[in-house]
Amino acid sequence: MDLYLFNLINGLADKWKWLDFLGIFFARYSEYVLWLILILFLFLSLKKYGRMVFESLAAGILSKFIITNIIRLFWNRPRPFDVVDVNLLLKIKDEASFPSGHASFYFALSAVIFLYNKKLGYLFFAISFLMVISRVFVGYHWPSDILAGVVIGVLTAWLLNKLLKRKNPQ
Questions:
Q1: Residue 66: DSSP 8-state
Q2: Domain ranges of the chain
Q3: Which of 53, 84, 85, 167 is deepest in the core (most CB within 10 A)?
């Protein structure tokens, strides 16, 4: 199933220049859009949005740099371009593929923001989804890498939010 979905998504690469451009943009640069939005919210009102921004960053850091890296220590899954012929649109470091660090980080970020602000959370989820599906499109990840990263990110965000609310009732 993983190979089938990968071939379905990555098989669209290298067919239309406009789609390749969008795939490369979302795979590589959409994270900067999310960072810019977070920075704008901090500048708008640190007092009002500071807790949301810092909690979302904490969840992202915990999910990507701790949980994801621990899993990668025990499961060194090769990237698709190491295993099958792919339409590889971008170069990337050859490191473990499972789970997706981008998916875990940006879905953790999105989930915390959603818990604080539904409209902004939907925007973050939409951009994060386009980012991670594009990483399959350009040949970086298997779909299951993305799914695992999403689950790790959302669960980390939810658990951290519950722990912090218990310690700091609002």
A1: I
A2: 2-167
A3: 53
Written as six digits, the tokens of 34 are: 């999310």
Tokens of 165: 């609310």
User: How does pLDDT run across 25-84, given as a tens digit for each residue?
Assistant: 999 999 999 999 999 888 887 777 888 999 999 999 999 999 999 999 998 898 888 888
Furthest C-alpha separation in the chain = 53
**Cα dist from 57 to 24, 33, 92, whole Å:** 24, 15, 24
Q: Are 144 and 162 in contact (CB under 8 A)?
A: no
Per-residue pLDDT tens for 112-163?
Answer: 999 999 999 999 999 999 999 999 999 999 999 999 999 999 999 999 999 9
Task: Give the CATH fold of the 2-167 domain.
Answer: Vanadium-containing Chloroperoxidase; domain 2 (1.10.606)
